[in-house]
Amino acid sequence: MAKDFRKDIDYMMSYKMGLDDTFQFRCKACGKCCKNREDVLLTPYDLFRIARYLGRTPAEIVDKYCDTYAGPDSHLPVVRIKPVPPDNSCPFLRNKKCIIHQDKPMVCAVYPLARITQQGEPAPFYVLQPGKSCGGTDRTVTVRQWLGHLCSEEGEQTGMMWGELIALFVRALHFLWPQIPDEQKESLCSSLFVFFYLNYDVKESFVPQLKANAMGAVILWQKELSFSEVPAWFPIEELPKGERQQHLLLLKAYGLYKRDWCAARGLRPEQIDEETGVDGNCYACLEEFQDSEYRDASYMEALLGVEDFSLWKQYFQRK
User: Fold this and answer.
1) Which listed residue, 135, 171, 176, 318, has the most CB atoms within 10 A of its CB?
2) 66-112 tens-digit pLDDT
3) CA atoms of 103 and 52, how far apart (whole Å)
4) Which residues are paired to 23 by β-bridges?
């Protein structure tokens, strides 16, 4: 399994494409990719766009068209489109056409590509899925042309945010899951389902709502999951002054420090073993960071944004 995962990572890093790179593909509109599928998973942004397009709430879309379950590995809530028998076709497929084509799920929009988010990268990248025989290869197209409006700044931003949010919780749950009581596991999954997927007003902008929901989920489960970092986009400046804001500022700074440490060495975060690092050299743990770099004003000013550095001076600058 580890070797297969490494092969996947190596393939992705060797063939990654940006929005202006080209590939060869022509869709024949055969509807093949819309049938015999039980693996079309929705991100919160997918669900939000579908709900907005159909004039429904996210909860109504889930109730009518989706299944939900806890991911066997991530332990996080998963939303998938519920296929329709007898050929397990997508419920949004009508007369060989997608009735939500304008706002279809990203996994459908990018096909035959896959979109990959990587911690520390400013935007997602794309790879051509290996072994896909559907369609023709007589058309050259850029990734940007293929995705159309879905490669907007909002679409790219939400892809990165969602990837980082999922990674945050997966890392925290990886070792803690066996120790969490069953009742608390159910509470965790149900609350994250609401925060991640349902708590949105489709008449309002998505990104601020995702930020607020992510913050709410972390605050609710911080004590139980003991996060060691939070993403750089967390709007901690919006929290009331106090210990909670101070602690989340520390976690944001630590996450940026780890990203900076890896980038300086040309490494990806997934290449680092937190115990042994690389050649015995690893980044500082949270406690060591707090006692060293985090006290250095010049380092933190370069690391943090203007608003976060202003907060840092209030909480941590030595008198």
Assistant:
1) 135
2) 999 999 999 999 999 999 998 899 999 988 889 999 999 999 999 99
3) 9
4) 141
